[in-house]
Amino acid sequence: MLDGTAVIRSLSPLPLLLALAACAQPDRPHWPVVGDAASGRVWTERMGCGSCHIIPGMENATGLVGPPLIHFSRRTMVAGYLPNTPPNLVRWIKEPQAVAPGNAMPNAGLSEGQARDIAAYLYTLD
Amino acid sequence: MLAAARAYVAARWRGLAGAFAAGVAAVGVVGGVLGLATVAFGLYDTTATNPHGRVAAWALHHTFINSVRRRSGDVAGPPGFTAAQVAAGFDQYAADCAMCHGGPGVDRARWVRQLEPSPPFVIDSARQFTPAQLFVILRDGVKMSAMPAWGETRTTAELWNYVAFLEALPRISPAEYAAMRHARDPAEREH
Hints:
The structure holds 2 protein chains of 2 kinds. Helix content of chain A is about 45%, strand content about 5%. Chain A is mainly alpha-helical. In chain A, strands 1-2 form a two-stranded antiparallel sheet. Chain B is mainly α. Chain B has 8 helices and no strands. The interface of A and B includes residues 42, 59 and 105 of A.
């Protein structure tokens, strides 16, 4: 006869082990999701970001005016000015001219929601 | 005996080849019907709010690049450009192109983001295309995109002015670009 509680007890380390495995994985994005990455991808395409930036996985995004948009889930700084947190990345995307006046990346009049979606998309890139 | 075997094998092959040809024809017919149905019933989404898929985006863009390469062979680019050409080119660019292509530190017009494909910033286009290729892009435009052909309404000298400006653009800082825009039109100090 199978004892239900014994089965559960034997399985109980499983969540713990899974959690440990997740922690051990170094490339895991350590930011909570701030927006909708799928719409962020559409906005990134539409805003012409790829004519100034290389963006992995995006066709025709081969620009070399600014740095490649890679490794955002593990990056320390945004544009070398702001610590890489979701609010700071959103701020840069919305108004780069306010953060670094006179740099080549224009303020594009994005809404907070659009900028959040783009940030969520950037955090999915490696 | 051997001849009979050969005849049998040949017949088998003819049978297989026939079946293969019939299969290809069937696929062709089905494909054709699907294609026609796509056109007739509006199955392909042509709305600009829905960006091209990856395959379409790649195919369109690379077709454009290779077409330009192929068609620019007999355009002789000038050996260099004068400062006067760059200045004239900037003036023309500000009037004809900046709304779609922006500039260093300056965004495109707001409505342009809803074009599909969306016009790229052209700050480093001169690294991707030779002057002769840029000339062909400007003269003949880009089909299935919003990029017009300018050869009809601009003189050859004016077309080269645009190219002169595009060639200079990678070395123009956002501050210099802002000063140029301000000198051209004092109202344009801010975007």
